[in-house]
Amino acid sequence: MSVLPMHNLAQAIRQHGLVRFIEHYAREFPDTHLKDLVVDRLGPNREMDVNGRQVVNFGSDSFLGLDQDPRVQAALVGGVSRWGSHNGASRAFSSVRSNVEAEEKLASWLGTEAVLIYPSVSLANLGALPGLVSKRDLLVLDEHAHNSMQEGAKIAQANGVRAAMFADGDPADLERILDEAGEYRVAVVAVDGVYSMTGALPRLAELNEVCLRRNAVLYVDDAHATGVLGPHGRGTVLDALGSYDNTLVVGSLSKGFSCFGGFVGCSEEFKRLLKIRSTTFIFGGPVPPPYLDAICVVCDILNSDEYAVIHARLQSNLRDLAHGAEQLGYVVLGGQTPILSLLTGDEEITLQAGRFLFEKGFYVQSVTFPAVPYHAGVLRIQANANHQPEAIDGLLGALAELQRRFALPTTRQPGLRIAA
């Protein structure tokens, strides 16, 4: 019998460079590569039963610990009773009342005129970026822009939009790109508010100054700052720029919010336009209604005095981790946000380091190429407000032992192109 086309397709996919790279490490280090883990229990202070072992989870992006808040959980349960489990239609046809209420609350909290909710940040970027630009426009991305923005740019390019990339978050290189682009009707410049792999911050104010001089709108994916940076967790944009006059901001409802979905903060005019032009909004399913009730509760918490108490716990944990890692001689990338990454370098060592910490009772994310440049692996640690002091101390103790065992980098290599 002849070979089935499905077999040929699988073999063709396996010839892709990235697939070959990943499968090589899966074969060479089957007991080292911490992927496809199965979690059996999540505790209130980030205890986690995973693959038959109890560890403390330092890989959670539920930064404020609101996933464990009884009020948020009660809102979800109440939402199921109120709406059932699903909206049953694209929002192009109808939205449950909770969707309207959540968008109004989010806009009031964020300080934008309007908000448009998507099922995820990635779907927001995949729909909004191609929806904002047409053939006579220009789309420019930071080279460290999140994968979903890069994929959104590819869709825009397929629709005839010119796209370019500027180097290493550098405002001067952005200006060069815009200068050399020739004539365009308007440009959109897409950047992260927080670089997701390292927790470092871009120079938003300088980038916006370039945008204003060069007829460009700044588009900021602020997913990793939503709920955790700026006054009442409003993110990086207001802190850096003071207004949203020349900025579209994308936020996450799953990280700091501990809920589900993403959103674009914008004017009422842009909300109407995105409803028309953004294909992932039109043709995608909505956020499940129970989460919308929970989002409203989180907005109330962020707007309250209680937020300062929660945020102080998070900041204390972050400071202790960052200071402790620096004292141990690690190259610490980030540390201004709940994400901090410790430079490990070599892919094999990065995987072995993550496994070593796992065996000591601590889960962190071993990040290698292609999420970071080749031979620029990191241990990605995410501080949460509900990490206990003994867990912080325990992880630092394990990191001290790890440094002695592996002699990890103590200086950043010259020319390393990683967002930091």
Explain what this protein looks like in three dimensions:
- This protein has 420 residues and is an alpha/beta fold.
- The protein has 2 domains: 26-57 and 306-406, Alpha-Beta Complex (Aspartate Aminotransferase, domain 1), CATH 3.90.1150; 69-303, Type I PLP-dependent aspartate aminotransferase-like (Major domain) (Aspartate Aminotransferase, domain 2).
- The chain is 44% helix and 17% strand.
- The protein has 15 helices and 15 strands.
- The chain has helices at residues 5-14, 17-28, 70-83, 97-110, 121-132, 147-158, 171-180, 204-213, 236-241, 268-277, 279-283, 289-303, 306-327, 347-359, 389-406; strands at 39-42, 47-50, 53-57, 114-118, 138-142, 162-166, 187-192, 216-221, 247-252, 262-266, 332-334, 339-345, 362-363, 365-367, 377-382.
- The strands form 3 sheets. A 7-stranded mixed beta sheet has the order 4-10-9-8-7-5-6, with helices on both faces. A 4-stranded mixed beta sheet has the order 1-2-3-13.
- α4 packs parallel to α12 and α5 (121-132) packs parallel to α6.
